[in-house]
Amino acid sequence: MNSIENKFREKAIAQTNFLIFPKAVAIDVVKAYQNAAIPIWGIDAFIIHPGNVVQPDMGESINFSPPDYKVRLDSIYADAIDFLNDKDDRLYFEVVVIDDEVLPGM
After folding, report:
1. What is the pTM of this model?
2. What distances in angstroms separate CA 5 from CA 38, 70, 71, 77, one per listed residue?
3. To which H or E segment does residue 36 belong?
4. CATH code reported for the domain at 3-97
5. 4-27 tens-digit pLDDT
6. Which of 67, 72, 92, 104 is deepest in the core (most CB within 10 A)?
7. What digits encode the pLDDT tens for the residues 61-92?
8. Structural domain boundaries in the chain
């Protein structure tokens, strides 16, 4: 878990191996990654059912990792925010990055 994830941990909806946020918080997470110049590799969408049952919704997710996403790095953050703003408020999101602990120097 990186320092930005630690900062937003308590705002996560589901405390699983990954952090799931409501849309407004996910936008704040994207902005924090932008400020830290940490590339976003994707955004995964989820539906939270009663009893905190988490269902992935890959149809509402996006992949920014190369080679699938060939737009300049600086546009990924704006594209991520636009993507989130277009989504239903009932969805929740994980903002996916490659952690330095996994791939040093990324």
Report:
1. 0.80
2. 12, 26, 25, 16
3. none
4. 3.30.190.30
5. 888 888 887 755 678 899 999 999
6. 92
7. 999 877 766 666 668 899 999 999 999 999 99
8. 3-97
